[in-house]
Design a protein that fits this description.
heterotrimer, A: 96 residues, alpha/beta, Hypothetical Protein Ychn, Chain: A, five-stranded parallel β-sheet, 3 helices, 22% strand, B: 130 residues, 36% helix, globular, tRNA 2-thiouridine synthesizing protein B (chain A), Sulphur_relay_TusB/DsrH (chain A), DsrEFH-like (chain A)
Chain lengths: 96, 130, 126
Amino acid sequence: MLLHLLNRAPSSSHVPRDVLRAMGAEDRLMLIEDGVYGALNAQVQHLPGLEGRLFALREDLESRGLAGRCDASVTIVDMDGFVALTEEAQRTVSWF
Amino acid sequence: MRYALLVLGGPYTHQAAHSALRFAHAAIARGHRVDTVFFYHDGVYNASHLAAPPQDEPHLVDAWRALHREHGTALQVCVAAALRRGVLDASEAERHGKTGASLESPFELTGLGQLLDVERTHERLLTFAP
Amino acid sequence: MSERAEAEHGDLLVVLRHAPHGSLWLREALDLALVGAAFGQSVSLLLMGDGVWALLAGQGQGPLGQKGTQSTFDMLEMYDIERLYVDASALASRGLAPDDLLLPVIPVDAARLPAVLAGHRQIFNF
């Protein structure tokens, strides 16, 4: 299982589409930096098929004023949770 | 676990270096070791000790130095990527006839072969990019 | 079938997603691939998105003498970098066919992309 890190928003970049195509059925997606815009209610539709495998970094949501706007299907994790996800994955792939 | 971070983004222009620092401290807090941070592409600018950010902004160079001092993290900088961007230590400055150096210990210039060694010897490698 | 599956395994996968000349991403990614191969690692390249432009024939230097990357691709075989995966849909959406490219490639469709990533011990994504 790979953990993919994404720091691009679906509203401004084609990179999220490439990530989805490269992800295996068990792989997980962690949204960081500007990637967290993809966790919003109105944007999460661009990251389909990731039930239980889509995560967003709390501090990057909060600094952008997005704390209460995240879709319920996204699991919000703090830095400690982010590290835990990297422990569980064999390796990580960063997309930017 | 033994972690390494690869930083590809320059300081301040992008969040990459801030994210890498945050991750390093979070990993250490969970009991891991962050033995190496490798700087490549525009990430090499993080090693310039000439950076003089305003006092009310995070001082990234000092933060990297503190990571080295407090946790022994090696701060390795790709020499080829650094030289073409004007990031030189004293010996490279002398070799190229420059009047000043912009990189000093604990940052160290090294080759890409070192990154490949890091990749093999650390259990996790995370890239932080612009 | 088993031969193909076996061919998807290697030490390092360097993913190239940027076109030549506009930035240094492609060159510095290739530098890492060449050093990896020189250190005895089995290295594969995967071209996705605008990275596929790197293989278009007829590239040259920039007007200031910027090197570009075509000469580096010419050296891949010498470095024993033989597996050159290309995202088939990235080619098609740019009006390119494998025959337009400088080097023989292994087209990868969406269904096989995850296997290419999973088959390598380490992935450097540029």
